[in-house]
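Example 9 (inverse folding). The structure is encoded as follows.
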C-alpha cells in the first residue's frame, strides 16, 4: 500500500536505534510531557498536539505544556484547550515536568528556546527526546531526531508514526494538527525543504480524512479587521527598501501596535509579504515588543543565509531562509541603526 511505500522514505534520522529507543521509552505506562519552544508557532503547536493525539490514541498518558501562549489563530486546533502554559500556571506546569518519565522537546534544539520551561526541563530526571529540524542542535537529550533538511517538525512526527507502525493511531484530529505545522513551516509548500515525501505524507493524511481547506480557512482566512489594517499600514507607512531593492525592512513601534489594537500573532506573515516584493533577497521585520526590546524576523531567498546573520548579530537562530532574534536594551530607533550597520557589513562582505 502507499503507506508502506511512504514508510520506507521517512527521514533517515528515524533509524533502527531511534525507533527502538522510542518503543522502549513508551513501555510501562510512563507519564509523558510534550513541550515546544516559546512563542509557539503553527509547527510547535501542531507537532505537540499531533503527537498528543497519537500517544493518547495509543492509550498512553500524555500532556502538552508550553512556555507561553500562542496566537489566537491557532486556537481552533483540537485539544488546544487542554494545553497548560507556564506563563499562566507556573506551579502546575513545573510539577508536571518534574513528575514526567519522558519529555518530548519538539521544534527546538536548545534549552534556552524553551523559555520559561528551560529550568524545569533541565532539572528533570525524565528521559528526553528531541524531534526537531533546526540546525546545530545542543545535546541536552537522550534521543535526538534532528533533521535540518526536513521542512517541519510535524513532518518528522508523521514520519515516526509511519516508520514505527503507529499510522493506524492517526486520528483526524491528529491529522488536522500535523497538517497545520507542515503548511505553516513550509510557507504553504513553497520553501525548498518541501519534498515529494512531504506531499506523500499529506496525501496519506488526506486519505485518513484530513479536511485541508478547513485548516487553511481557520489558520489564514479568519483574521480580525484590525490585523489586516495593521499589516496594510505597516507595508504602506513603515517599509523601507535598501540596497538597490535587495533588502526590505518594516519596523513597528509600540504606538503603531496600540493604534491597531495589536493582539499576539497579528504581525505573523508580514515578513513574508516583504519577501514577496520583486527583487527583495532579504526581508526584515522589527517589532518593539516592549520598551527596550525589539524582536526581529528575517527571511531570505536562495543562498542568502539569515540564520548566520541572526546568530552573529541578534542572539538568534533558525534556518537558512527563515530566522529570528532579539535586540535588548535599545529603542526601536537604535535597533534600526544597528540593523542598518549589520546589513551594510553584510552587503560589503558579499561584494
Ligand atoms: P519567526 O521569524 O517566524 O519568529 O522565526 C523564524 C525561525 O527562526 C523559526 O524557525 C524560529 O524557530 C527561529 N527563531 C525565531 N526567533 C528566534 C530566536 O530568538 N532564537 C533562535 N535561536 N531562533 C529563533
Ligand atoms: Mn518548525
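The amino acid assigned to each position is listed next.
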Amino acid at each position: 500500500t502507499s503507506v508502506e511505500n511512504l514508510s520506507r522514505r521517512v527521514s533517515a534520522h528515524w533509524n533502527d536505534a531511534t525507533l527502538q529507543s522510542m518503543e522502549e521509552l513508551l513501555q510501562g505506562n510512563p507519564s509523558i510531557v510534550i513541550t515546544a519552544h516559546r512563542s509557539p508557532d503553527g509547527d510547535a503547536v501542531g507537532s505537540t498536539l499531533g503527537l498528543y493525539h497519537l500517544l493518547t490514541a495509543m492509550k498512553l498518558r500524555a500532556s502538552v505544556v508550553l512556555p507561553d501562549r500562542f496566537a489566537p489563530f491557532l486556537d481552533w486546533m483540537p485539544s488546544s484547550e487542554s494545553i497548560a502554559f507556564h506563563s499562566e500556571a507556573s506551579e502546575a506546569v513545573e510539577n508536571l515536568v518534574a513528575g514526567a518519565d519522558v519529555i518530548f522537546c519538539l521544534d527546538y534544539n536548545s534549552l534556552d528556546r524553551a523559555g520559561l520551561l528551560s529550568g524545569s526541563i533541565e532539572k528533570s530526571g525524565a528521559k528526553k527526546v528531541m524531534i526537531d529540524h533546526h540546525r546545530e542542535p545542543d545535546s541536552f537529550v537522550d534521543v535526538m531526531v534532528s533533521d535540518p533538511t526536513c521542512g517541519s517538525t510535524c513532518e518528522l512526527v508523521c514520519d515516526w508514526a509511519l516508520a514505527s507502525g503507529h499510522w493506524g493511531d492517526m486520528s483526524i484530529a491528529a491529522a488536522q494538527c500535523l497538517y497545520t505545522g507542515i503548511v505553516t513551516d513550509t510557507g504553504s509548500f513553497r520553501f525548498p525543504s518541501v519534498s515529494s515525501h512531504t506531499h506523500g505524507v499529506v496525501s496519506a493524511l488526506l486519505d485518513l480524512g484530513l479536511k485541508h481547506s478547513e485548516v487553511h480557512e481557520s489558520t489564514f482566512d479568519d483574521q480580525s479587521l484590525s490585523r489586516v489594517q495593521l499589516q496594510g499600514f505597516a507595508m504602506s507607512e513603515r517599509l523601507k527598501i535598501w540596497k538597490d531593492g535587495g533588502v526590505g525592512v518594516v519596523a513597528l513601534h509600540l504606538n503603531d501596535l496600540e493604534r491597531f489594537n495589536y493582539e499576539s500573532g497579528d504581525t505573523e506573515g508580514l515578513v513574508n509579504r516583504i519577501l514577496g516584493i520583486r527583487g527583495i533577497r532579504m526581508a526584515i521585520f522589527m517589532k518593539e515588543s516592549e520598551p527596550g526590546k525589539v524582536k526581529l524576523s528575517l527571511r531570505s531567498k536562495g543562498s542568502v543565509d539569515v540564520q548566520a546573520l541572526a546568530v552573529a548579530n541578534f542572539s538568534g537562530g533558525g534556518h537558512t531562509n527563515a530566522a529570528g532574534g532579539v535586540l535588548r536594551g535599545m529603542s526601536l530607533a537604535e535597533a534600526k541603526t544597528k540593523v542598518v550597520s549589520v546589513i551594510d557589513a553584510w552587503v560589503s562582505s558579499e561584494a
